Amino acid sequence: MDTDQLIRTLTADNAYRPRPIGLALMMALLAAAPVSLLIFFAELGVRPDVMTAMHNPFFDLKFAVTLALAASAIAVSLHLSRPEASLRSFGWWLLIPAGILVAAISGEMMMPQRTPMMTRLIGKNSVACMTAIPAMSLPLLVGALYGLRQGAPARPAIAGAVAGLLSAGLAATVYASHCTDDSPLFVATWYTLATAIVASVGALMGARALRY
Amino acid sequence: MREREDEWTDLMRSAISGDDAAYHRLLKAITPVLRAAARRGLARAGQPVDQSEDIVQDILLAVHLKRQTWDTSAPFAPWLFAIARNKLIDALRRRGRRIFVNIDDFAETLPGETPEPTASPGEVTAQLQALPARQRDVLQSIAVDSASIKDTAAKFAMTEGAVRVALHRGLASLTAKLRDR
């Protein structure tokens, strides 16, 4: 097939309208979400004292951190799906959840505490946190990568890592309603480690799946 | 140069809103620029330049299949050159070269520079043979026999919708085969 013939063929296919990436990503995440929720309700469930916990600002702050991570990672993912995009212009969005976390830690430091710092940091649920967040992230990560395959990222591994961040953000949001450790020190340690695991898996998978 | 790139942007906007003639003109207009850049990239990597047409076709397929990632309010050329650069790097890497491709290779092509294809490209043609029969027939009918969608539908006793689907799937799997070879 010579190039003129190829051009004619591509022109004949001009009527085909691919789905916008935002829509493709959203639909893929919606398809994957029930799997993650099934893992959550089968293995964990919402903590029993959730009604009282809601009045604790540090319980609510967990959601602010994880939702900020999910939202900023979704925005950066969509940005990186364009071939000429790089992390340089939008990457700082990913610092928003970290900023909220730092503010929460300093807030907690200024308050009188009954338990010592190391006890709050180590908490009771570190193992559950480190297993549940990656396990619940995995279906979302597969979905996100599937949706983002519509895109054309210049650096597939980086785009995959950000897809990992977004899946971990969503999974951690659900997990936070189970976890009884509300100290921002716990979140900064264990949630971050779990998120880093998912981001690494995302980078490995993305390097293959997101090539175009 | 700026004029040329503005024209591309206009053509691509028209193409996306359904103007096939504009799309055809755009692809014809960018091809010599891509060809010159591919040749320069190969030459710099010490590779025979007669493989440039395979790279050009690779880029054109990616432009086609990824055009929804172009932001219609942005200029077209930077988007095009980003895809072209990525595909050129891929092609050189596959040939065992790690090489830095300068984006200026694309932007600096002079409008007067219009090289003709050197050798007939083999990679797309080879992968075409590996496609499912229906997709291959439809692609061949439209590409090689220059039949319209309508004529192709009549020839294979398919609906026009089915021809369109086979055509698009064929192009997509062709690209996937080229990428994963």
From TrEMBL, chain A:
Q: Which residues cross the membrane?
A: 21-41, 61-80, 92-111, 131-148, 157-176, 188-210
Amino-acid biosynthesis is among the record's keywords: no
InterPro entries, per database record: NrsF
UniProt keyword list: Membrane, Transmembrane, Transmembrane helix
Organism placement in taxonomy: Bacteria, Pseudomonadati, Pseudomonadota, Alphaproteobacteria, Hyphomicrobiales
Q: Which protein, by its recorded name, is this?
A: DUF1109 domain-containing protein
| Signal peptide (residue range) | none
State the species of origin. Answer: Bradyrhizobium quebecense
Superkingdom of the organism of origin? Bacteria
